[in-house]
Design brief:
The chain is of the alpha/beta class and about 350 residues long. The chain contains 13 helices and 11 strands.
Length: about 350
């Protein structure tokens, strides 16, 4: 196996993800919906389409070239991957980094995303025998040389202790921030709503806090996200929304309510499902202060503004490119230096 042949197999995988006639993909989607009620048809389809667009030969080659990579590592090792399962196919990027560097990937799947990731593994095994010895599913990650592990703040402490003697990337909880300029178009506000609601707000790239200029109002945002009301048709989302609305009313907390999203003025970056925090800023210095205070917990900043830190355009939060690394840690570089 060489890297060029591996890239060809990965591109075939991209084609499989958009092949609605593939019975194995259809079965995986059905099993995913049955296994995890949060994974409805829309959420799964969005993830499949996003990855199908990324897994193209030109994009993969451009990514590797930008990292000055040409070929596998000289001494392949076994790298363990503990995958999250909060949104569909959330562990794909880590898997790509390990395989493209030529290492053996030993993967512990999340029960919440197991059917879709098992489809990925089975497809790659079918495309090339090399994957049958270099991509293994495991319940326990014994005998590994390095680890990439994603989990909650609590599980990260366990990971840090358990894997303390090997090179590691350990990821914790993160959320995303949207910064309004005050002159967004209705379409741009709708797209920021998509960044809030896609996957029902369960991903680290979902917006959980809105930073608004004092000359603006959160009600303007409300006015242009009305078409996202269908999230309330999902029973688990509706339960979260109803529960937090009852809490706000019981505790007499001031809030806004458009009957499917609760908005509360609160400096906290994190907000629970069904809720969105917001705060005001008067000038760019206050924006920078908020970012600096929360940057270790921010995954992505969504904004149309020209800011002194990296941003993505409205509607693009859940469509990362191959060079968008979780937590800002270059996973591919990690794989080439372990």
């Amino acid at each position: 196996m060489n890297q060029e042949r591996l890239i060809d197999a990965i591109c075939r995988l991209g084609q499989s993800l958009s092949d609605s006639s593939n019975p194995h993909l259809e079965m995986a989607q059905r099993q995913a919906r049955n296994t995890n009620p949060w994974f409805d048809e829309k959420s799964i389809h969005f993830a499949l389409e996003a990855w199908a667009k990324v897994l193209q030969k030109e994009k993969i080659q451009e990514w590797l070239a930008s990292e000055k990579i040409n070929g596998f590592v000289e001494k392949p090792k076994t790298i363990g991957i503990v995958m999250a399962g909060n949104i569909p196919l959330v562990g794909m990027h880590d898997l790509l980094c390990v395989l493209l560097s030529g290492h053996l990937a030993k993967v512990k799947l999340s029960e919440d995303d197991k059917p879709l990731m098992q489809f990925i593994i089975q497809e790659l095994h079918r495309f090339d025998r090399w994957f049958q010895t270099h991509l293994l599913e495991a319940d326990k990650l014994n005998g590994i040389d390095a680890i990439i592990a994603t989990g909650s703040n609590n599980t990260s402490r366990y990971f840090e202790f358990y894997f303390r003697n090997i090179p590691a990337i350990i990821r914790k909880n993160r959320n995303s921030l949207a910064i309004l300029s005050g002159d967004e178009s209705p379409e741009e506000l709708y797209l920021i709503g998509q960044d809030v609601f896609m996957h029902y707000g369960l991903g680290c790239r979902n917006v959980t806090h809105l930073l608004i200029p004092r000359s603006d109002s959160p009600t303007r945002f409300y006015d242009h996200i009305a078409d996202h009301y269908e999230v309330l048709n999902h029973n688990k989302y509706a339960n979260n929304y109803t529960y937090h609305r009852a809490l706000f009313l019981l505790n007499k907390q001031e809030h806004l309510d458009n009957n499917f999203l609760l908005m509360k003025e609160d400096d906290s970056l994190h907000s629970p499902v069904g809720c969105l925090n917001y705060s005001y800023y008067s000038n760019l210095e206050e924006v920078q202060e908020y970012y600096a205070s929360n940057k270790d917990s921010i995954q992505v900043v969504i904004s149309k503004m020209d800011l002194p830190f990296a941003t993505v355009a409205p509607g693009k939060a859940q469509m990362p490119e191959l060079n968008d690394y979780a937590d800002g840690v270059n996973t591919l570089d990690f794989c080439y230096t372990v």
